[in-house]
Amino acid sequence: MERRNFRAMGTDIELLVDADGAGEALDAAASEFHRLEALLSRFRDDSELSQLNRERSIEAGPDLIRVVELALAARERTHGRFDPTVHDAVVAAGYDRTFDEVPADGPAVAAPAPAGGGVRVDGYWIELDDGVRIDLGGIAKGYAAERAAEVLAVAGPCLVNAGGDIATRGGSWPVGVETGSEPLTLELTGTALATSGRDRRTWRRDGRVLHHLIDPRTGAPADSDVLRITVVAPDAVEAEVAATSLFLAGARAAVAEADAAQLPAVIVDAQGRTTLAGGLG
Questions:
Q1: Residue 100: DSSP 8-state
Q2: Residue 161: exposed, middle, or buried by beta-carbon count in 10 A (0-12, 13-18, 19+)?
Q3: Which of 192, 200, 213, 191 is closest to 82 using CA atoms?
């Protein structure tokens, strides 16, 4: 087993490959993360995403096109629970720089505004409505994990962990998941996993604890009775979207929706109670 650890996309990245002599593949997978970060980060003024948010309409490269298309399809599929147009709401809540640089406390934040503005993709052109900016943070991370796994898989069975967004290719991978009590181990076999929660990236403004999971309907950090939810799905993009959508649905609805979709999920509510759904038991 060979391993590589580094920082990218504002989080810790871990690459595992069940093979010897995989240094070249590990290098290539790490390079893919850095390449995609340079294109898709809202924190880099020179990224293609930042150019789009400034200029409203650009001829974009294939990766930005693909991730925007995935985000728009997710918005449609989740009936607006997942929405890439929450950029200004995230910034207004205080997450206006990389998380490592966000002040832990500060004065009151700006008034929230609902998301949901227009985004159009036509060939290689992307156009935003006036006043609309997009944030691809979570879905870009899932996309990068999948792309890196494709690169790494040429060397052997592999796992890519991008701050909790996990993609696998080949083999069988035991992955520990936090619950309200004892950790639970899930086995990933060619599947992916993502976690959304309000117990990690938090800060205070005017005495209120805020977090990065925005409810697009209000533009404010979501007032969900879910503390944390982990979802297993066919790929890391789908897992990321599902985890965000089910978090916003609330604990009871999340269980019902995961069961109906047979989407394995570990749901921890605000009281620390853990519910297994979607076929887990």
A1: G
A2: buried
A3: 213
CATH architecture of 2-277: Roll (3.10)
Q: Contact, 112 vs 92, CB < 8 A?
A: yes
Residue in 127, 148, 119 with CA at minimum distance from that of residue 57 = 127
Distance CA 199, CA 148 (A): 27
Please choose, from the candidates 162, 137, 170, the residue with its C-alpha nearest in 3D space to the C-alpha of residue 14: 162
Query: Whole-angstrom Cα distance, residue 275 to residue 230?
Result: 11
Q: Please name every residue paired with 274 in a beta bridge, in sequence order, or none if there are none.
A: 268
> pLDDT tens digit string along 199-211?
888 999 988 999 9
Q: Which helix (H) or strand (E) holds 257?
A: helix 251-261
Domain coordinates in residue numbering, the chain: 2-277
The rounded distance, in Å, linking the Cα atoms of 161 and 115 is 29
Q: Are 152 and 15 in contact (CB under 8 A)?
A: yes
Residue 27 CA to residue 12 CA, distance in Å, equals 16
User: Could you report the per-residue pLDDT of 176-226, keeping only the tens digit for each?
Assistant: 999 988 899 999 999 999 999 998 889 999 889 999 999 999 999 999 999
